[in-house]
Structures are given as C-alpha cells and as structure tokens.
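The authors assume throughout that readers already know how a fold can be written as discrete tokens. Each protein is reduced to its one-letter sequence and a matching series of backbone shape codes. I therefore recommend that a typical entry be quoted early in the introduction. For illustration, here is how one protein appears when written out as sequence plus structure tokens:
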Amino acid sequence: MATPSADAENQLVQGEGQPLLAPDQKWKAPSKESVDTEWDSTTYDITKLTTWAAFGMATGGAWDKVGLWRCFGLATSLSCSVAIVIVFIPRSSHVAPEKMQKLGTFLNVFVGLLLGFFLSSSMNRWYSCVNAFLEL
C-alpha cells in the first residue's frame, strides 16, 4: 500500500482549514421582525410551560393555522348541510336499515383495507430508509 506524499497531506489539511462560507456570506443573526413573523418550535421559553400561562399560549400551536380553521369550517358546513338535507327529504324514514348497515360494513372494510395498504407502504419506506442509513 502506497503512503500518501507530504504534498497530498498538506493539501488535505489546507482543504480542511478552508472556511465553509465565503467572506461575503457571513452569517447574520435574524432580525427581531423576522423572528416575530416566523415562529420556530425550537425557540420557546420553557419556564412558561410550568406556569398557568401555558394554557394561554397560542403561538406556534395548531390553533393558529389558517388551513386548520378552513378545514374545520368546511367540515362543519358540510355536516350541517347533509343534516338539513336529510331532515327535509320526504319519506326518509322509509329507507331500509339493512341496506344502510350493509353499506356501513362495506365502508368499514374498504377503509380498513386502505389503511392496511398505507401502513404497509409506510413501513416499507421506513425500513428502506433505515437500511440506507445503516449502509452509510
């Protein structure tokens, strides 16, 4: 096995001593405005979690997400609309309960099958990620 020359060792040491950022790319601390507008889950004050103020904390939680409220509003309006339609359909009490029970059973089995496929693909993805990590 050939030993590396002294010149190659010097190049390796010089390469390790090279800064990761160019001089014009110096790291700057984020401004106060950017910290206030963009909340990060790693920048919380842990002392507030042990007081009663923890129950009033809303920043960074799930409840300050606009998408959550939109989804909640749409789901509520859909369920109210379906309830109103069902109440005002004439002779809705004449629907055979056996057919509805068969439909419910079918939907339970179908959703269970879809969940099984999802869990199987998720586990396969996790297993391949772990194996790829262990091969590093």
Residues 97-134 form the longest helix (38 residues). Helices lie at 6-17, 32-37, 66-88, 97-134.
